[in-house]
Amino acid sequence: MIEIHNFVFNPFYENTYVLFDETKEALIIDPGCYEDTERQELVDFVAQHELKVTKLINTHCHIDHVLGNAFVKKKYGVELYIHAEDEATLRSVEVYAPAYGFTEYQKTEAEHRMKEGDVITFGNSEMEVLFTPGHAPGHVVLVNKAQNICIGGDVLFDGSVGRTDLPGGDFDTLIQSIHDKLFSLSDDMEVYPGHGPRTTIGKEKISNPFCALKK
């Protein structure tokens, strides 16, 4: 059984997720920890639950989701998984990070490239990769259909969708990703987004002002 814990890190109020199961193997997804206090909060949780971090994953590579990449890689000796279409997004963070006040950002490289249909395993558990561009060119979400879990990054929010005015963003592509990929999932599927509270596929199909399905 997968357990999910989230932290809210950095000035963008980004959700960082730790997924783990009964084996104590764990994934860290979108580590936004930048300040020492944030890093310590993550480390303390991992230690208290006696977790073994096995993989680091970015749903996409905007600055708020990658600030802790270098720290997590060094602390836990893990490798980074991204989609190949987001490599340029990751490389660009080093250029613009100082303008946002993150003068001590440490760049990282990805060792693995995810693609649609890949399965990310940890312990007795797995998450399937869905390619969902629009907010970022290489955005992915991670889904476990047995438990109705979707780690959604910045695609679909409670009553909103990811912004598309950043480089590589496209509104029509985002809406297509939501309709074709996410809205094909169970209505009971819980979406754990990159910002804000959880929601469900069924709720957003009906009420989301940006992407609800017309009746």
Automatic annotation (TrEMBL):
Keywords attached to this Swiss-Prot or TrEMBL record, sorted alphabetically, are:
Hydrolase, Metal-binding, Zinc
Name the coenzymes or cofactors required. Answer: Zn(2+)
Give a yes or no for keyword Hydrolase in this entry.
yes
- Read off the CDD domains from this record: metallo-hydrolase-like_MBL-fold
Give TM regions.
Answer: none
Origin, by domain of life?
Answer: Bacteria
What residue stretches are annotated with the Metallo-beta-lactamase domain? 13-195
Alphabetical list of Pfam families matching this protein? Lactamase_B
Q: What is this protein called?
A: MBL fold metallo-hydrolase
Query: What is the source species?
Result: Reichenbachiella agarivorans
